[in-house]
Write a structure and sequence with these properties.
By secondary structure, the protein is an alpha/beta fold. It contains 12 helices and 7 strands.
Length: 298
């Protein structure tokens, strides 16, 4: 099993303002006494778990990285030992790709177009047989005899789900025929679309409300003029002006935003609110985040 993303050095200090803004938004949008699921929680470096635990709400922390989840609980245990009883860990692998599957993927890339298509066909068949992306969450809910969770939070997760495949494909670019390389990246984009469709369909069945955070675009340290232009545009013309800038979008996050728009039009979900936030992710790059507050119909 892949362990998930490593913790970011310096995040505790660099993300302090972003963390507080996101936590305040969650507090405003989610009922204070309801059960809360944090999907892709990791060590909760981007959320103030201590503050969310203040009112003793039940919080489920779900992630592939068991060590990171335990680190999140440990932080609370040191400061609020009485709140630990309200925390529950759910280890989950949303994409259901083990290390052996990644190795088989690399072999398929070397074997050519037919093999890479077969890998994806086998993968989606296996995913379907394992009962979808949120199978572990549903299993935990059945154990607790819970029909629906009051609120779910998912921040900056979907851009990372197939990132390991992207990195391995790029690593092998010079060893691959150009058409195989291009098709491999196209198939990952297609997988992101399927993930977006499946995720929203499944999340509607387990929660009443979703706080969804997506990376809108990436801004590198040397792009100070672009950063200023984005901030000025948001202050003057808002979303319409931002869209007119035709910024490069973040794979995975972009597909989910498109699917969200489609589901709103079909009245599967209702968009209650959205806000933009600046996430100083690393010293060398930041993300413009868009956070949606979504009412889920089932």
């Amino acid at each position: 099993m892949v362990k998930g993303n490593e913790r970011i050095s310096g995040a505790e200090k660099r993300w302090s303002q972003y963390r507080q803004e996101i936590t305040d938004y969650i507090q405003k949008e989610c009922q204070s006494d309801g059960r809360l699921l944090i999907l892709g929680a990791g060590a909760c470096d981007d959320i103030d778990l201590e503050e969310l635990s203040d009112n003793k709400r039940e919080i489920w922390l779900a992630d592939i990285n068991q060590e990171a989840l335990e680190a999140a609980v440990s932080k609370i245990e040191k400061k609020q030992p009485e709140a630990v009883s309200c925390l529950r860990i759910v280890e989950t692998d949303l994409v259901c790709i083990a290390e052996q599957d990644y190795e088989e993927y690399e072999k398929a890339l070397h074997q050519g177009m037919k093999a890479i298509h077969q890998w994806w066909e086998d993968y989606f068949k296996r995913l379907q047989e394992s009962y979808g992306f949120l199978r572990d969450i549903r299993n935990a809910m059945r154990q607790e005899e819970i029909e629906r969770i009051d609120s779910a939070v998912c921040l900056g997760l979907h851009s990372q789900l197939y990132m390991e495949l992207v990195l391995r494909t790029r690593k092998l670019q010079t060893q691959l025929a150009s058409d195989v390389y291009a098709e491999a990246l196209r198939l990952i984009q297609e997988a992101n679309c399927k993930m977006a469709e499946g995720f929203i369909e499944e999340i509607r069945g387990i929660t009443k409300k979703l706080i969804l955070g997506l990376e809108y675009t990436t801004i590198f340290r040397e792009e100070t003029a672009l950063e200023e232009a984005i901030l000025q545009t948001l202050m003057t013309t808002g979303t319409s002006g931002l869209q007119a800038m035709q910024l490069s979008r973040v794979e995975g996050a972009f597909q989910l935003e498109q699917e969200l728009g489609s589901c709103c039009q079909q009245n599967k979900v209702r968009l209650m609110d959205f806000q933009y936030f600046w996430w100083p992710f690393l010293e060398e790059k930041s993300y413009l985040m868009v956070i949606f507050s979504i009412l889920c119909y089932n």
